[in-house]
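Quick one: structure tokens for this chain, please?
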Amino acid sequence: MLFAATLLAALAASDGPFPPGLRMNDIQVIGTHNSYHIAPPTALYSLFADQARAWQYTHAPLRTQLSDQNIRALELDVHHDPNGGEFRDPLFGHGSSALLKQPGFKVFHVPSFDQGTRCVLLKDALTQVATWSAAHAEHIPILIQLELKDSGYEGPGGYRIEPPPPFDAAALDALDALIRSTIGDDRLITPDLVRGDAATLDEAVTTRGWPELSAVAGRVMIILECGNDVRARYLDGKPSGQGRPCFVGAPPGTPAAAYLVINDPIAQGARIKELVRRGYIVRTRADANLKEVRANDPTRRDAAFASGANIISTDAPVPCSDLRSAYVCGLPEGGCWRPAPIRSNTETP
């Protein structure tokens, strides 16, 4: 057993080759939270007080995260802007771009207040990933969580940010078409691919298990994190995501369940362990709102690793020098993946 663990750790120093029988949910990777994010201007901190302090981090470009920071999971906040110009006037000009006038899905955090982004258009973000993926054909699957934003916000001084255009059926179909055209059907891990001949996606991942890494190397898996109404709309007539390119965050035991977000590895560590053992892929957070980063406190990060969650999301894949903190979240052994400390009951013997 010691030899096998040592061998897996050595292989994880690069993406592959992968040992036979090692499945997608048998590994642990680092992801970035709000992977596109550029910190807002200092003027915002006095206006938006403590909430803005949680936004004081800047990520490297996506291709740099993939190549230099060993990131294999990304998170993009997506806003629907079918006519263009919906978000063209951000506060203090933070995140201003001529691209905001174009119709299409936009990537940023909070309208007006926190619009700094490495990629204004979702199309550009997906193209960056697709280009990097094509140049690194044997990489472990890259997981992209698209958080579909459809809520308004209460800003300072009674300032109200109205809800953006909703993700109606037409918007979701347009999103699917964009994903297929940029990533390519042959490079996507889809619900149909994982479900196979099982009755539901949930049944597939909790009984037969996920595909082996060697079978899905070089591919991209996309998950929609959204509200109940949007999820129901996306799954309407397709309860396991049949024919769709994206997974959804769905409750365990429901037909589309496969990928779950459980953000607190301390309070919910036991729950994460249980779900990992059942066969779900779970994403958790090593730090949140820069609290652990500012305190240089690894407690939550270490709990995230120990929980067995497959994706450990962080705002600090490299030290945040602006915050004078040495805190960083990377795999203890280095590299871009490691064997998960807790494995599914569906694991191949």
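The first strand starts at residue 27 and ends at 32.
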